[in-house]
Amino acid sequence: MTVLNVLHMCCSTFRLCFVIDYPHPPQLHKTDIFMLFLNLLALLDTIIKFNTGFFQESIRNVVMLRKQIACRYLRYKFWIDFLSCVPLQFILLITGNRMRRFHLLAHLLPLLRIVKLRSTITNLHTVVKIFTLSFVWHRSIHHLILFAVSMHWSSCFLYTPVVFTYYWTGSIPKGYNTFLKSTEADADGDITKFSICQKYLQAFFVCLSTFFGTGFSTYKVNNADEFVIHSCIILYASLFMVYTVVFLLKIYMTQYNSTMRYNGLINQVEAYMQQKQFPKPLKERVFTFYTYKYENKYYKEDAVLDCLSEQLGHEIVMHTCNRFIQKVKLLRGLAAHLMGELMSYLKPEEYLASDLIARAGDIGDCVYFIAYGTVAVYSLKGAEITHLEDGDHFGTVAMLMKDSKRIATVVAVEITHLYRLDAIYFRQYLMSNKIIRERVETKASKRMHVTVLLDEEFRRKQEKKWEDNIVFSHDFT
């Protein structure tokens, strides 16, 4: 019905302003057949609306009682819908009625549907959103359709003085629409000498030049009523183009605001590094970090989340961390409400390749979960124990030690995104859960055993290597 309403509004104005049968009596035109088809569909829609519920604000519900639906529809929109879809023009042409004023009335009745313009634009916006997910796309398509309809109506509006005079008096007035005159033979301004295509294209060109401000004032206007119509078109075109400029600025700011903020942030970082005289390798690492962290778009996440309620904040955290939660085997079995609370205490941290994350011998005050990336784990003596990837965790062994000292050094192999959980929340949410505590203890026991074995093997290899070096030096001497 949204498409039908737009077509109905455009075709009805086209039939009124461009199809003139002078000097012959009114005749059936192809547009009349198409209008009949649109009127029948609109009439069918009018019948269906007697069975279509409506939303009542006072009860916050949809009313489905047919009596209330009929009463409300008859009171407000029925007469406009009905009168605008009555095929009166087709009936007059079939019956052979030649009274031009009746035909004028028949052409004006479909124009009543223009009253539904606001609701049609709202529905059009909804229809476009169905087919385009992007805000920029559906707003742009919506605006382009409005522009096309505005251009069409403005083109029709240019001929209204001539058209109304013809239907009211039966004669064509002279001296109007001088933009049609291409030769001296056209000096009388008789628009019936031009085809429908010529009239429409010429009027469309005039209105297009008005909308873009490129020369509508060059066309001569001889009559007061035509001057008023031209002035109205110029005023509307100016307002529409101002709206278009504001719309384009809004689209630009929507699309590139975060990118502009990112560039501003990078400019500040670059100025800071120049002032502090950072070496080139360090500058490159800083730029790498910012590129990874913000992906060329900058926004203040804390400012976005701080105004939300605690429950809504937990839901957002659960949504953003959903893939991470599915990867971490350690957290499986934790109640949903506890998971939501736990997620709010996880602090994201990013590390570049070769960055030191944890050092063996330091006090362990937190546990790390790997969202994505790879880290290498080394023993206290420097033996490489293993590589940990997405969904793995480390730092739990220190939580079980009496002195809370870490038994391994962890280094990022590539850009790695971690979630840090402080010791107090680790004990509160994870160690209080029997199943998860058993998982932690089992995993920590295996890692300690593997670490001791690899450390011992690494020590023996180092001693052997040292002895071989001594023997080699002795023999060489």
SSE ordering: HHEEHHHHHHHHHHHHHHEEEEEEHEEHH
Strand portion: 5-15%
Mean pLDDT: 82
General shape? elongated
For the biggest β-sheet, the strand order reads 3-10-5-8
Binned, the helix content reads 55-70%
Number of strands: 10
Distance between the termini: 100 Å
Low-confidence stretches: none
Radius of gyration: 39 Å
For the report, how would you describe the main beta sheet? Answer: 4 strands, antiparallel
Q: Structural class, from helix and strand content?
A: alpha+beta
Q: How would you describe what is shown here?
A:
The chain is of the alpha+beta class. Helix 7 runs antiparallel to helix 8.
Concise synopsis of the structure shown:
Helix content is 61%, strand content 9%.
Structural key phrases:
477 residues; 10 strands; elongated; 19 helices; four-stranded antiparallel β-sheet; 9% strand; alpha+beta
